[in-house]
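Illustration 12: Metal-binding protein.
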Amino acid sequence: MEASGFSVKRIDTKRINTIKADAGLTPDLASCHTAFIDGYVIEGHVPADDVKRLLAESPDTLGLSVPGMPIGSPGMEMGDRHDYYQVLMFNDRGQSRVFAEHN
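Figure caption equivalent — predicted structure in token form:
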């Protein structure tokens, strides 16, 4: 994210599951990292370009998630392997839809 121009503040906490729940993340949207930017939640290995698109379009939503840790997503590179994955946009009613598809 820093390489893509984002300022990052890292916080190590044992309260991560509470933070995720308070942010509206359901277990099926969860991943390993939770971030907040301009009122949005970014969960997991969401590509920087998708975050930039979210900020530019400014939809009425809670945020974006890449559930799990798909190989080939940012930070999960494994040589030439690139698994297909979706970036999901989710709302406060527990609904989600595909925001972007990769690999």
